[in-house]
């Protein structure tokens, strides 16, 4: 296995990995009618707008994981608002009129495209950079997560924050062991925010 810089032709694999880890680390393929919609939010904008900070883990079968992110969360949020979300909003209808408890996973994703989550100030104050890291099951437990994290953090000066589903116990354990600390001031029922550096 190797870690390498992402390339533009990795984009289909990034969409696939995002979907196959999109249910709190488990495969979300059965949850979404549109197999690209999660990747449109959590993977593709980084590959398109911050390719220099995108790394891919690869084995003999191809891409099996990634780490994506930005060195400046607020600037990235503004750039997505100007350059990424408008085209997607033209393709996906806003589902704000659907009661939250009745939205399907696809409708929730469409809602996020129109109302993208903004990082809590407590997380940005702890570390302005943020990241997303996902590994397919075949790549887990072999040190690839640590290799990706070491290399990516080295690219952004060693400080970053991230958000993780509280249901993703395996990932939370990895972040704890790696040295991330939980940010109580940024806690929510849906996301555990953590920072390092």
From TrEMBL:
Lineage: superkingdom: Bacteria
Keyword entries, A-Z: Transferase
Limits of the N-acetyltransferase domain: 1-197
UniProt keyword Iron, yes or no: no
Organism the protein comes from: Phenylobacterium kunshanense
InterPro entries reported in the protein's UniProt record: Acyl_CoA_acyltransferase, Glycosyl_Hydrolase_84, GNAT_dom
Identification of the protein by name: GNAT family N-acetyltransferase
A single MF term (Gene Ontology): acyltransferase activity, transferring groups other than amino-acyl groups
Lineage: Bacteria, Pseudomonadati, Pseudomonadota, Alphaproteobacteria, Caulobacterales
